């Protein structure tokens, strides 16, 4: 009589063990991703604080704002051109030396800088070039890293990691001057925006602040985390404020009251941030 070998399958206990292991692996991966994102948030906060400290140090050293310093070519080491002309912002009434980085009208329309880097021995040709020279001056004063002085020697397009610093979490930073105009897409009342020298976290250093879906550097959750670490955690008050897609970056229940919040249920990158670094 032949013995028939019965095929053995997995027992319920074995299946339960396998499913538990798979669940632990998936949970570990998700937890690891969250830890990495939290680390990037912390690193981005540290970046902004370091740039604020660098501006303060620059002012103490030179009694001028970076990017706006008259005679920068003769005061900073390493400026190319005759008498370091490539480092000099454009002169004239309301330009170099007015303690304002770039145009005072930038925040009115929140448009693109519209100016490429200066070249070789040619000085800046527009006031808005100060927004590029801002980073070059800080670099040549040995106060920041993460950028190069390539744009002082060659005509190159604005680029993160070269002319502007890249943010640890996403996008990068551009500098400028704000006059209290609210950020694009913001729900707060007019005239309650940030005033003074600011950093804007953007996806491109030469583009206007965007308000379309998924065209910004941050998901609302990450924007809220950064805001909470640095300020009051609200997108419409304090010295850290938000811009972006009004229908998803922000909640709308209390629009116009300055008490609305970040819509942290949205996963797409619909938010950007504005940081005041000098009042």
Summarize the structure.
Helix content is 30%, strand content 10%.
- Strand-pairing-aware structural class: alpha+beta
- Quickly count the helices: 6
How many β-strand stretches?
Answer: 4
What string, H for helix and E for strand, traces the elements in order? HHHHHEEHEE
Rg from C-alpha positions? 24 Å
Mean pLDDT: 84
Identify the overall geometry: globular
State the distance separating the first and last CA atoms.
Answer: 96 Å
Low-pLDDT stretches:
117-125
The main pleated sheet reads as: 4 strands, antiparallel
Helix content: 25-40%
Determine the strand fraction and express it as a percent band. 5-15%
Main β-sheet, spatial strand arrangement: 1-2-4-3
Q: Which characteristics define this entry?
A:
279 residues, alpha+beta, four-stranded antiparallel β-sheet, 6 helices, globular
Detailed description of the structure:
The chain is of the alpha+beta class and 279 residues long. 30% of the residues lie in helices and 10% in strands. It has 6 helices and 4 strands. The protein has helices spanning 12-62, 72-75, 106-109, 130-140, 150-153, 220-230, and strands spanning 172-179, 195-202, 240-244, 271-278. The chain has a 4-stranded antiparallel beta sheet. It is globular. Mean pLDDT is 84; it is low at 117-125.
